[in-house]
Structures are given as C-alpha cells and as structure tokens.
Design goal:
By secondary structure, the protein is an alpha+beta fold. It has 10 helices and 4 strands, in the order ααααββααααββαα. It has a domain of about 325 residues: Outer membrane efflux proteins (OEP), CATH 1.20.1600. Helix content is about 65%, strand content about 15%. Helix 4 packs antiparallel against helix 5, helix 5 packs antiparallel against helix 6 and helix 5 runs antiparallel to helix 10. Belongs to the outer membrane factor (OMF) (TC 1.B.17) family. InterPro entries: CyaE, MdtP/NodT-like, OMP_efflux.
C-alpha cells in the first residue's frame, strides 16, 4: 500500500508537470506571434512563385526577378536573420510569464554500521527514496527591466525585417542590372555581326572593282583588313554575351552554363525623366521609407531601450515563489525505526526581494557601454541617411543624362546609317574612294556602339533610381 501511495504522488507530479509544460507552450506560442510585428507576419505570408522548372524561353525580366528572390543566398540569409530575431523577441516576452518546473528523483541506499554498544551492536539500512517537487516563480516587479528588454528585441526584429527588405531590393536591382547587361551584350554581338556583314560587302565591292580594273590592290587590302577587324570584334562581342548570360544564370539560381534565351529589349523611350523639382520629394521619400534608413533607426531605438534595461537591472526586483514537495522512504533493517517506511510532505509560498548592493561597479560600466553604443548607432543613422540621399541625387542625375545621351545616340546612328549607304553607293559607282567608304563604315559601327551603351545606361539609371528611393515596385523595375 505504501509503495502504491508513493507512485501516486510521483504520477501526480509528472501529470501536473506535463500539463503545465503544454499550457506554457501554448501561451509562449501566442506571445511569440503577438511579438512579431504585423509587417513581419505579412512577409511570412508573401507567396513568391518559387519554381524549379527550366526557365521559360524567352526569359522575361519578371520571371528572372522571381527566380532570383527565391534562390539568392542574400535573401535567404536575411530572412533567416528575421527568424532569429523573432525567436529572441519571443524569449524576451517569455520573461514576463511565470516559470514552473518539476523535479523527480529516486535512489536506492544501503548502509551498515556496528558499535561496541551492547544496546545496539549492529545497525543496518536498505531501501529506496523517491521524491517529487514542483516549484513556481513569477517576477512581479523589476523597475521595467523586462519591458525594456522586450522593446529592445522588438526593435531589433524590426531592424532585421527592414534589412530583409533592403536585401530584396539589392537582389532585384542586381538581377535586373545583369539582365539588361545581357541584353546589351546581345545587342552588341548583333551589332558586331552587322558590322561584319557591312565589312564583307565592302570587301566584295572592292574586289569587284579590282577585277574590273577600277580600283587598286591597296583598296582591296584595306577593305580586307577592315573585315578582319570586324570579325575579331564580333568574336569578342559574342564572348562578352556568353559571360553576361552566365552571370544572369547564376543570379537566378542556375549553373552558369545553363542556356538562356532572353526576351526582346524593351522600348528605350519608356517613361519620362522626373521633373527637377521632384528630386527633393524623392529624397524625402527615401529618408522616410528606405529599408536601410528604417533598419538603422530601429537599431538606434534598440540601443535606447538597452540603456533602460541596464539601468533597471541595477535596481531591486520582487518575485513570487511557491513550491510543493513529497518524498517516501521505503526501508528494511534494524534500528529505532524498525525498518518502517516514512513519508514527508512540504509546501511553501512567499515573496523574494533581490537587492543588488555591490558588484564591482559592473552596472555602471554596462550603462556606460549602452550609452556609448547609442551614440555609435546615432552616427550610423546619420551616415545612412546621408548615403541614401546622395545616392538618390546621383541616380536622378544619371537618369537625366542617360535620357539625353540616348536621344543623341539614336539620332547619331540614323545619320551614320544614311552616310554609310551614301558612301557605299558612291564607291560602287566609282565616285568615292575606299577610304571614304571605310570611314563611313567605322562611323556607323561606332554609332551603333554608342546607341547600345546609351540604351544600357538609360535602363540601369532608372533601375538605380528606383533602388535608391527604396521602391522596387516603381517604374524602374517595370520596363516590360
């Protein structure tokens, strides 16, 4: 009967402990979800179309951006950091709740003793000891130490959230930039092949005139040299295109040797240059909403909360404590107890007041460190704001310059094409020399190169402006 009673005590303690652990798990889960800001929960519910199928042919910009967001290590690492910060925020929130723990123990003991006493010459004991203990503790008041720590971890979570947003913008920008770099390289390769075709036609015209006795051998050699240079330029342009395609494939989570076919180049006349007065509005918007600025400000708020936490830790705290224990000792042997089992039960409840008196001025140094860290972060916020504003200004200027350069480059190519057609017709009719034809051919090749460069700079400038403002959903990323 006594053994059964002991087991009942232990089973009750185990059941109570399991129930308490389950209840606390539910409470902590709810607290953790409450701790995470709504913005972070919104990101968790974003449905990014991650696919593992082969990329479409042709590959459009939107699909490339989706694949990059799904597979790029930068976004994966930033999101993992958000999860780490969310777990830490949950730990800080858990400090506001009571702690309940159970201890179960059991042992088997044996002892023998002998003495010269005639009354008790021998004393022996053998038996088992079982015990169960349930403790409860709840910090009631600590001068705001826990609240400050909760605030600090929440701000760090907000900072991680904004860092994730910044990582998304960086991935979008780099992928879009590499996408247009590949388009530019493809256009350069096409232009180089077209130049090679023009050079071949010039060589054919020079050879025909040589055979007809209307041109010298030097004319043919000059045309042949120009064709060789055009062939070499075409090979180099194709190699640059292959390299750009490999870079884009790596951005979207594929091996560099994965064959990709890109969509047609978007219209280079898309959109208008923002008005000059709008640059101040763009800077103001970036300073208010750019993820890097928001992340730095959240870090600054976290350091301010850390100061409050360090101060509160140097002050007293009040905690409520309670406990319940039960033990049973089953024994056989001699002695005064006659080998009878024994049982014990105890309980307590009270209030514990912890007063830090002296710890070697450690709290003073911790507060000083927190204040210095706050100053460091304040300077970091100012530097981040300065960099963001300057980048918006530079990107704005590049957009205006790129649009003007593109307009001039398009006109230059049109004029150079007309000049080349006229020079070729004049040469075939015997009016112009081979030097005039080759000069017009070189001018057309250079005009094509200038237009391709201007088009690429126009697209990249718009991408840079959208990224610097912190708005990947703006027109800069919607060029299709």
């Amino acid at each position: 009967m006594s053994v059964k009673a002991s087991l009942n005590v232990e089973d009750s303690c185990v059941a109570a402990s399991s129930a308490l652990r389950y209840a606390l798990s539910v409470v902590l889960a709810a607290v953790l979800l409450h701790t995470i800001p709504a913005s972070a929960q919104a990101i968790a519910s974003v449905d990014i179309p991650c696919v593992s199928l082969a990329p479409a042919a042709p590959l459009r910009l939107n699909e490339a951006l989706d694949r990059a967001l799904c597979s790029h290590p930068l976004t994966s690492r930033a999101w993992a950091e958000v999860q780490v910060r969310a777990a830490r925020a949950g730990q800080a929130q858990a400090s506001r709740l009571p702690t309940i723990s159970a201890v179960l123990s059991g042992s088997a003991n044996r002892s023998d003793a002998s003495s010269s006493s005639a009354y008790r010459p021998n004393d022996a004991y053998a038996g088992t000891v079982r015990a169960a203990e349930l403790t409860f503790e709840w910090v009631l008041f600590d001068f705001g130490a826990r609240s400050a720590e909760v605030t600090r971890t929440r701000e760090l979570l907000a900072s991680a959230h904004q860092t994730f947003n910044a990582a998304v913008i960086d991935v979008l920008y780099s992928t879009a930039r590499d996408y247009f770099a590949a388009l530019t390289a493809r256009a350069s390769a096409d232009a180089a092949r077209e130049t090679l075709s023009n050079a071949s036609q010039s060589l054919e015209a020079a050879s025909a005139r040589l055979h007809a006795g209307a041109a010298s051998k030097a004319d043919e050699l000059q045309a042949r040299t120009a064709r060789g240079q055009a062939a070499l330029a075409s090979l180099n342009a194709q190699a640059a295109y292959d390299e750009a395609i490999g870079t884009l494939a790596s951005d979207i989570g594929l091996l560099p040797d994965e064959p990709l076919t890109l969509a047609d180049t978007p219209s280079s006349t898309y959109g208008n240059t923002p008005q000059r007065g709008a640059v101040r509005t763009m800077i103001d918007d970036a300073l208010q909403a750019h993820p890097r600025v928001l992340a730095a400000r959240a870090e600054q708020d976290a350091t301010a909360a850390a100061i409050d936490s360090m101060r509160a830790q140097a002050l007293p705290s009040v905690a409520l404590q309670a406990g319940l224990s039960a033990s049973r000792r089953a024994a056989v042997g001699g002695g005064d107890a006659g080998g009878l089992p024994s049982r014990s039960h105890s309980s307590y409840a009270g209030v514990r007041v912890t007063i830090p008196l002296f710890e070697g001025f450690a709290s003073v140094y911790r507060i000083g460190e927190a204040r210095a860290q706050a100053e460091v972060q304040r300077a970091a916020v100012q530097e981040t704001e300065r960099q963001v504003a300057l980048e918006v200004w530079k990107s704005y200027q590049r957009v205006g310059a790129a649009q003007g350069a593109l307009r001039e480059a398009q006109a230059l190519q049109e004029d150079a094409a007309l000049a080349f057609d006229a020079a070729r017709a004049r040469y075939r009719s015997g009016v112009a020399s081979i030097v005039e034809l080759l000069r017009a051919q070189d001018a057309l090749s250079d005009a094509r190169r200038q237009r391709i460069i201007a088009t690429a700079e126009w697209f990249v400038a718009r991408l840079s402006l959208a990224a610097s403002v912190g708005r990947p959903d703006s027109e800069g990323f919607l060029l299709e």
